[in-house]
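Let's study a protein:

===
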Amino acid sequence: MGETREMRCKRLLHRSRYRGTKESDLLFGQFAANHLASLNDDQLGRYEVLLDEPDHEVVAWIYGRSPLPARHDHDVFELLRAFEPRV
């Protein structure tokens, strides 16, 4: 039996909340809690690929400290970039 959408979202939420740095845990965790349910399956896939990247690189892309690779120039990254976590 394959992974259901509900199981996939729970797994991605867990991965988002436990990234390894407090800044990343807050950003990704709150983003996932707010957006995963509204993303379609293709968007979930793009988000999951972002989670495979090192924290420091994704944060640098979000805050414009380094150029965004073309492979991540998509709608989900723009949602993440525009998201403002509550501290």
Summary: The chain has a mean pLDDT of 95. The domain at 5-82 is CATH 1.10.150.250 (DNA polymerase; domain 1). The two ends are 39 Å apart (CA to CA).
